[in-house]
Write a structure and sequence with these properties.
- This protein has 287 residues and is an alpha+beta fold.
- The chain is built from eight helices and twelve strands.
- Helices cover 31% and strands 23% of the residues.
- An eight-stranded mixed β-sheet has the order 4-3-2-6-5-1-11-12.
- The termini are far apart.
Length: 287
């Protein structure tokens, strides 16, 4: 068994508010340290990305989970996806309402059904049958984290990618969706290949204006550039984000390959993120 491990997490593209991001920095560092400890102890990449994204959702600091905002109908519709690179098993939920952890619901879809994605009322019914934790009071639970944002497609997502000491990689992404979205809107985050992807050589979690990431299948594009174009991780990731820019979109992604290389390109005004490198070094950045 090898000893290489690595991890990246993000709290969303876009650093727009004229305020301190010290709480996010502190929280992301805590999560990076927790993820490092889990990987060092032999936890699987799949378990690590599940737990890190769950904690990002629960914090209320990002536009996902507790920090999500309501759509134009006043409903909190949340999306998430998770994918295991070793098996390429995956699960996702879209427009899920009433549950604390969309990423846990996505993993349950992966492990407890023969499907990949459940949406809307079907996702809600399934999560209830799995006895996942419910939001008891919408008014008391959600604390929207979004700052005022005048862009046509305001952004906010969380995600994590990891390589474990057995050489397995995994990715997870979760979001409350773009601000002031139409009822029923689904972005890239729960769509495998668009906002989340993991296979035998790379794991990717995207954040940004999902309508563009959907059209470019950005997460899978990183993998394709590596597999078919012979590009290294950094070149592939940067090229995928550059393609988003050519369409007028913005955002970023985090990615890890099977050798522990990390990439975190973005063309948005900042991206909240933290990294654990194979040498154990931790970095936390927002711009």
């Amino acid at each position: 068994m090898g000893q290489t491990y690595a991890l990246l997490l993000h709290g969303g593209a876009g650093v727009l508010a004229a305020r301190s991001y010290d709480p996010e920095r502190m929280h992301m560092r805590e999560l990076a340290e927790a993820g490092k400890a889990m990987l060092e102890s032999g936890k699987t990449a799949l378990d690590v990305v599940t737990e890190i994204v769950r904690r990002l959702e629960a914090s209320g600091l990002y536009v996902a989970g507790k920090g999500a905002s309501p759509n134009q109908a006043g409903r909190y519709e949340l999306d998430a996806a998770i994918m295991d690179g070793a098996t390429q098993k995956a699960g996702a939920v879209a427009a899920l309402t009433g549950f604390v952890s969309p990423v846990h619901a996505a993993r349950a879809v992966m492990e407890k059904t023969r499907h990949v994605m459940l949406a809307g009322r079907g996702a809600e019914r399934f999560a209830g049958l799995q006895e996942l934790e419910r939001v008891e009071s919408v008014n008391d639970y959600y604390t929207p984290a979004a700052a005022p944002d005048t862009r046509d497609i305001a952004t906010g997502t969380v995600g994590c990618v990891a390589l474990d000491v057995s050489g397995r990689i995994a990715a997870a992404t979760s979001t409350g969706g773009t601000l002031n979205k139409l009822e029923g809107r689904v972005g890239d985050s729960p769509i495998l290949g668009a906002g989340c992807w993991a296979d035998g050589h790379v794991a990717v979690s995207c954040t940004g204006q999902g309508e563009f990431f959907l059209r470019k299948a950005t997460a899978k594009d990183v993998s394709a550039r590596m597999a078919y174009g012979g590009q290294g991780l950094a070149e592939a990731a940067q090229g995928a984000i550059a393609d988003i820019g050519t369409m007028g979109g913005e955002g970023g992604l985090i990615a890890v390959d099977a050798r522990g290389n990390l990439a975190q390109p973005f063309n948005s005004p900042g991206m909240k993120r933290a990294a654990v490198y194979p040498d154990g070094r931790i970095t936390v950045e927002v711009d």
